Amino acid sequence: MSNIVYDPAIFREPALRTVFVRVARPQHREKWGEYEVPVKSHTTVIDVLEWIRAHCDPTLLYRHSCHHGSCGTCGMVINGDQALACTTRILDLVDRAEAEGRDATVELRPLPAMNHIADLAVDPTPLYRDFPTAAGYLRESEYNKGSETPPEIERYERFENCIECGLCVAACPVIRIRDFMAPAALAAYNRELDKNPERLEELLPRVDSDRGAWGCDRHLECSRVCPTGVYPAKHIAMLQKKIKKARG
Ligand code: SF4
Ligand code: FES
Questions:
Q1: The whole model's pTM is what?
Q2: What is the pLDDT of residues 2-52, one digit of tens each?
Q3: Is residue 28 situated within a structural domain?
């Protein structure tokens, strides 16, 4: 775990510059909201959205909770790429655009492949609907090695470090063209089978299909965008191996 140093000086820092931000607002007649936002060195995309709500438009909608990359609710498309708004520093985007000679306006859109609610807010049902049943909710990383844990905790364990942000679903080119399970859900199946091989007969048939493990075209976009290193594509390949082995 990294040590985070809180330096109160960053809150007193004056705004360094103004950044232009375009926010998709598909349910509005204008379709886009355009704002000029003062930013500091540490300003993130979620800070920008909060500034817009406080100073320009309190009706702007987006999802967020933790503000530090652990709840998975703030996923969106930032300058064309799927990312978490709370861990994306706005000046990194501006500096990159300017270095490449592009327009430095930051463009924000809602995650595709989710159920759109309004502005940048989406309902993540398409992410959750295919998760294996009875696979629990706690992350493995929350275990303290060597410590004693109550036996019933097993029931709440979930795979690796998935924060259920849905970026893998939004980035997957296959989901855009045909019915395909969420990469995170397929990774959860593989993880569940590693932990509980006695569930093989129950779980494997649920992913042995073209909308399951065999639907993957190996674009690897899910692994590229995943902010917590789950590497869903690796888990899908491992699921395919398990299916082949079970077939004999
Ligand atoms: S596998 Fe990664 S990208 Fe997909 S929902 Fe989990 S954390 Fe997000
Ligand atoms: S607000 Fe929790 S991950 Fe961004």
A1: 0.87
A2: 344 556 666 678 888 999 999 999 988 889 999 999 999 999 999 999 999
A3: yes
Residue 92 has pLDDT above 50, yes or no: yes
Mean pLDDT taken over the chain:
89
- Please name the residue whose Cα sits nearest to atom 3 of ligand 1: 226
Ligand 2 within 6 A of CB of 40:
no
The verdict on 148 and 174 lying in the same domain is yes
- In degrees, to the nearest 5, what angle opens at C-alpha 235 toward C-alphas 233 and 240? 95
Residue 67 CA: nearest ligand 2 atom is 1
DSSP H/E element including 227: none
Q: What would the DSSP string read from start to end of 11-37?
A: HHPPP-EEEEEEEEETTSSSEEEEEEE
Does 69 contact ligand 2 (Cβ within 6 A)?
Answer: yes
Interval between CA 244 and ligand 2 midpoint (Å):
38
- In the reported structure, the alpha carbon of residue 142 is separated from the centroid of ligand 2 by a whole-number distance in angstroms of 18
Domain boundary among 122, 139, 168: 122
